[in-house]
Specification:
With 498 residues, the chain is mostly helical. The chain is 72% helix and 2% strand. The protein has three domains: 29-210, MFS general substrate transporter like domains (Growth Hormone, Chain: A); 221-274; 279-487, Up-down Bundle (Growth Hormone, Chain: A).
Length: 498
Amino acid sequence: MSTKTPPAGDGPVTPPPPHARADAPTGKNSRPGTALIVVAGFSCLVVALQQTLVVPAVPEFPGILGTTPETVSWLVTATLLTGAVATPILSRLSDMVGRRRMMIAAMLFVLAGSVLAPLGGIATLIAGRALQGMGTALVPVAMAQMRDGLPRHRVAPSLAVLSATLGVGGGIGIPLGGVILDAVSWEWMFWFSALLSVVAIVAIAVVVPPRARVEGSGGFDMTGAVLLTVGLVALLLGISQGETWGWGSAPTVLAFLAAVVVLVAWGRQQLRSADPIVDLRATSTAPLLFNNIASLLLGIVMFANLLLTTEQLQGAVGEGGFGWSSASAGLAMLPNAAAMFGVAPLTAWLAQRWSPRVVLGIGGVVTALGYLLRIVASPNPAAVIVWATVIGIGVGIGYAALPMIIVRHAPGHQMGAANGVNALVRAIGTSIASAGVGALGVAMAVEAGGRSVPSATAFSVIAAIGGAVALVTVACAVLAGGSHSAPAPVRNGASTPE
């Protein structure tokens, strides 16, 4: 018996009929379905925490470990690199061997990195952070599992919740890390992560239903995986280390040139591959293409908001800053994190009544408004925190719309890979924001108190760029419309028991 998939039009969110989801919960208040959402959300939160939990300790590590700030910067770079590489590969493998296996694998990387990091010196710490970064791949796999394992009416709300946890984890990581650092020692940041990852692994094993593979998913393209790895490493090395090496230096220029050459070669190879890591033909359709561009842009404005707010609150008084301590500035981001999580139910409700691309556009408008208000109405710290929270609300709305668009337009047998690409470009966006905010802060620095600090002009320019990027997100939402091919037939998405 065949089942028709809905047209890929512009109506409210209605995910394609479940692909042989005989094990999916059916009742409106199904306990298994609720448990699945809770476990997936908690696991995504644990992964998101890894991105910022260690940030408060980074300025202390050169003195603690007897190394240079340039070496310590690899604690962030290593996580970014491994996360970018692991996300599309583990997402593709989840289409082939099952979501639960890859979710557990991702959390095992986090556990291994958390245990390894505090056991030695800077080399061991960087290796541990690299392993933690690979856990980032859990997020798109968990989103694909929501589509596979839940009844249709619960898919949109669950995706909104999972998207919200990404912003929440990043927002609470800095203040939580600061509290742990002040209360005990930096090693406990990693022991705490290890404990959370053990809880997540057990919960995933108990709650997430076993499933071997998605029929029609094909084999694994090793050549494509290697080319993608080399290309992404070169690209992200250039972005993350450009400020340290010098943007016009030979290493930075060579990294970007290598990235272009290898990624172009990878794209040509993927178009010829029978089982590509990423189905470039599917992702080139307007809904998925502009959805991925919007994900990149939202990654930029989200992380720029985090960095801009903490830097401005800690900045020099009289130069646009307010002289707060790093701990207080970190705690000031908690309202932003809470707001991102709080808008998740509203986002799902709006998407069910209109369409996810309309919701994406609303998120872009709210984000742009928040950045504008930062420029024209930030006379005191309270106003800065309020406008940062408005930006968080806009980003939270936009984040929640992204996986809903994927569920609507991506082929069933490429659901994990499609979510992986979306998560990957979002991570690239955060790295661009980190490099860009740092570069602008240095370029527009002033002397205050015997040290170089970002000026009031730098804060305004960063906010103006953030607002402009948010408006481009609105344009992506508009351009993502139109009539395009529907997802692959149901027979290609059927799954078999593990």
